[in-house]
Amino acid sequence: MHILVADDHNLVRDGLRPFLYELDQNAVILDAANFDDAFAAANAADVLDLVLLDLRMPGMNGLQGVVRMRQAHPTVPVVILSGHVERAEVMAAVRAGVAGYISKTISGAALIDALKQVLNGETYLPTGLFSKNNPIESLPPASPLASLSIREREILGHLIEGETNKEIARQLDLQEITIKIHLRNVYRKIGAVNRAQAVRIALSSGWPIPMSL
Question: Could you report the per-residue pLDDT of 5-30, keeping only the tens digit for each?
Fold first, then answer.
């Protein structure tokens, strides 16, 4: 596995290495201290499986760095590392195509779990970012989410929170196979091919997400 880590603090880059080696003990880890060097390293790499970008390092220009990286390497998951988790930034990052948004205050074990989720094709967002109890009925009429049933919206809300099918089933007191069937219907109705795309479509289509951090 080839992983690019870009952060302007040496301590952060060095501190991430042991956890990345837990993902793959033979991982090849490239590092950079600014976006320009990260972009050059990504373009020079023969193989690239994962990119971790510090949101506020030099050269990022907000999410412009994410957009450039995604355009150049559309099949490589890009994960944001940030010392701050703010609703507007997370939503904007998802719309820009990130596969994950990870707080630098996260524990090592949680970091590994988050990256495994991303490498499995899912989207990781900070735990507790979205409220389960907020009303989700008032969607714009043109929204692709408008055709979802109440149960389907409820399950999609749990999906956005990063829960697995098993966790959703336990929360809703349903069978896991029932969750899978509902999710297949959700994907079909909103035009998603997987969990990650379903999350992106939901957040870019007016999903109401009041949040208390």
Answer: 999 998 889 999 999 999 999 999 99
Q: In angstroms, rounded to a whole number, what is the distance separating the alpha carbons of residues 96 and 67?
A: 6
Burial code (b: 16+ CB inside 10 Å, e: under 16) for 184-207 equals: ebbbebbebeebbebbbbbbeeeb
User: What's the confidence (pLDDT) of residue 209?
Assistant: 44
Q: How far apart are CA 146 and CA 190, in angstroms?
A: 9
Q: How many whole angstroms separate alpha carbon 82 and alpha carbon 61?
A: 14
Half-sphere exposure of 187 (CA within 13 A, CB side): 13
Burial letters 115-142, b for 16+ CB under 10 A, else e = bebbbeebbbbbeebbeeeeebeebeee
